[in-house]
Amino acid sequence: MPRFSIIVPSHGAAGRLSQALDSVLAQSFGDFELLPVCDAPDAPASGVASGYAERDPRVAPVHSPPSDGLAGARNAGMRAATGDWLLFLDGDDMLVPGALAELDARLRETGDVDVLYFEHERAPWWTGEPANTAAPLLERAPDGAFSPDQAPRLTGVRLPAWSAAYRAAFVADHGLTFPAGHFTDLGFGGLSAIRAERVAVLRRVVVRHRLRRQGNRLNAPGEHQLDLLDQAELVLALAAEAGLSPERSAALFEQVVATVLKAVAYPRRLPPRLRRTFFRKAGRLYRRHRPAGFRAPGGSLGVQHRLLAAGAYTAFRALRAGNQLAARAAQLGPRPRMLRTRLFYRRRLRRPIDPNLAVYCAYWGRGYACSPAAIHAKARQLAPHVRSVFLVEPDAVDSMPADVEHAIIGSRKYWDVLARAKYLINNANFADAVVKRPGSVHLQTQHGTPLKKMGVDQSTYPVVAAATGSFAKLLARVDRWDYNLSSNSHSTQMWERAFPSSYEALEYGYPRNDVYYTATADDVVRVRRELGVPEGKTAILYAPTHRDHASGFDARLDLEAFCEAIGDDYVVLLRAHYFYDRGAARADGRIIDVTGHRSSEDVCLAADALITDYSSIMFDYANLDRPIVVYADDWDVYREVRGVYFDLMEAPPGRVAATPEALAALFRDGSYADERAAALRAAFRERFCQFDDGRAAERVVRRVLLGEPPESIPPVIPLAERIPAPTPVLERS
Predict the structure, then answer these.
(1) Which of 298, 496, 623, 720 is least enclosed, having the fewest CB within 10 Å?
(2) Distance between CA atoms of 87 and 720, rounded to whole angstroms?
(3) Where are the alpha helices (DSSP H) in 98-216?
(4) Percentage helix, strand, coil for the chain under 3-state DSSP, each rounded to 5
(5) Average pLDDT by consecutive 10-residue portion of the chain (733 residues)?
(6) How many C-alpha atoms does 494 have within 13 Å on its Cβ side?
(7) Which residues pair with 62 in a beta bridge?
(8) pTM for the whole structure
(9) What end-to-end distance do the CA atoms of the chain give, in Å?
(10) Is 41 exposed, middle or buried (0-12, 13-18, 19+ CB in 10 A)?
(11) CA distances for 277 relative to 140, 274, 281, angstroms
(12) Max Cα separation, the chain?
């Protein structure tokens, strides 16, 4: 039987779960079982947990449906636990080094107490000093084991579940479980403190609680705020039944009421129709459970107590009116640079949102491309009633399809459609001045699977951080997202870390990759002819990525020498990063520059094989199940300067070469496409082509533009059942 059972609910924390689990497995004290609780076997966090379970027998994943909430997840973990002591850790929190050894030593000193309370840190998600809010509460407690009557203010409701260790036998004997609903920590903490006969404290930080940028879910607006009153009722009713001492009753009541008043004081947490109902219900709770002889605190808090007890909602509301007005003023909006433009945009924002208007943009206005274009095309089929407008820079107008409506960025039409559109779809971000209107829907499609560090994860890489600019502005743009697309679980987790906010992840695949499963043999032949690929030649796509520490484009490979080394059967399609777009495709002997071709998907369809370094194009191209070679001549430098999410050399999509000579040898002897290369590619596809199946655009249109429920969206076709577009080699044979 292990000493500790550590229960880690993981809903909504897949991106940081590995850090939480690592913090436990790195403990010097090893007598524990680790129980990550995941939504379902196919949930993003389950893949993370399963990987740990394969490597360490102490990890035993548990499943609990998301509909059961945090309470259900913790209860499922308790049912599976076999340890002497129960510890709870949120999926994005960490145990500090040496924490379990400290707990074990303290428990040996105090004996079999029912609950051991300990300190925790609340660490700001970005910058600032951690706060230890538990320390003032615990510093006045007796030094050894003691009865709760000796520390009346230690009522349990001010400490989260992850700031205490609970003796498993005590929990089982009293049938303690986390009460269903929200604010379950208040319920469980209060109930366990009331039932406990002997407790102790550890004046050491055990848990580092990492505050989410998007804030505590419990502070979000919604009807779930009513659950707070239900949890308060549960605790106060048991307290009355248990016959607590007057000092404990008064302390418990005051702390519960303080929690309720926080919700009342911020009216935006409740829909307007429920605010008066919540206040009156809270007032009845106050009057029903106010202990005999209870004296309200002084000052402003005492005034709030008296208004709550009297049910004086109108007076309480008037007390808070000033703060509400100030909050609204802070939200005043648009700041386009030119005065006339500001006034024009502000006027348009006063007009109703057009429920049948969608605005698209790709690569900051470079044209009709990527996932926004794929979604636009599918919307014309499935949602023809929605008017679609593409935003483009002036120099991209000529490349737009004639039948696609567009608006030039910065024009009056541009600001008009941005102000009134119901749907705003982009693979980058809209301008800072764009206001997220209530009722509008912003969809971020992304434009690749992240190998390199992104978003706020770039902050520790000086070269990249300097180019990124203000992270505060970046996150303000992220806050406009309602949905964020993902093509695999890896992306879902990394986006959660890189772009922390309250959007919903849509694991639907990237619409731009649909063509890799829907293109025909005729499409492949057509594209090759458009690009000028000579008939009978094997086309190798060479697509190096951008180097943040370099200026200008560097091919990093002498392509003429490479062509000479591999023989006359090959031609090279050069596609530089889009930062170095130099216009239309052009050929120079056996090298065809396709950087300017508007569709990277077409270029991939035309290629028999891909050579890249660290470009995200490898993840997209893998859908075609064609050979991929990684040319990694500066991997250590790139990893150090740019930062990466995983070691590509440990899990490449095919053969790897570090020198031009080794690269050429792979093509001369055919090993770039041998069985070993195919096995590496198969594992890579299994991991990164998870949701791309040819129907991503349809899923997006049905969910976002047509509002269909998640359960009606077409499921992802299993990888083994997908048929990629025909290869050029087959078509020439």
Answers:
(1) 720
(2) 41
(3) 99-110, 135-138, 168-173, 184-195
(4) 45, 15, 40
(5) 96 85 96 94 86 95 92 96 97 94 96 95 76 88 94 93 96 96 94 96 94 73 87 95 93 93 78 87 93 84 86 76 45 56 88 96 93 97 97 91 94 94 96 93 96 88 72 88 96 92 94 97 94 93 81 74 93 74 54 89 96 96 97 92 93 96 96 97 97 97 96 95 84 43
(6) 22
(7) 37
(8) 0.70
(9) 65
(10) exposed
(11) 38, 5, 6
(12) 97
C-alpha 691: how far from chain center: 17
Q: Reduced to 3 states, what is the DSSP secondary structure of residue 80?
A: helix
Give the whole-angstrom CA distance, residue 50 versus residue 553: 42
E runs forming strands in 57-97 = 62-63, 85-88, 94-95
Enclosing H/E stretch for 115: strand 115-123
DSSP label at 131? B
Do the bridges between strand 85-88 and strand 164-167 make them parallel or antiparallel, or are there none, so unpaired?
antiparallel
CA–CA–CA angle 467, 468, 469 (5° rounding): 95
Chain centroid to Cα 196, Å, comes to: 38
The position carrying tokens 């055919």 is 670
Helix, strand or coil, per DSSP, at residue 267? helix
Distance, in Å, from the CA atom of 193 to the CA atom of 481, rounded to the nearest integer, reads: 41
Outline where 483-616 has alpha helix (H): 489-498, 515-518, 521-531, 559-566, 600-606
Using the structure block, give the residue that is written with the tokens 């008064």: 250
Q: How far apart are CA 521 and CA 514, in angstroms?
A: 15
Residue from 502, 613, 541 nearest 217 by CA: 502
Alpha-helical (H) ranges within 429-574 are 462-468, 471-478, 489-498, 515-518, 521-531, 559-566
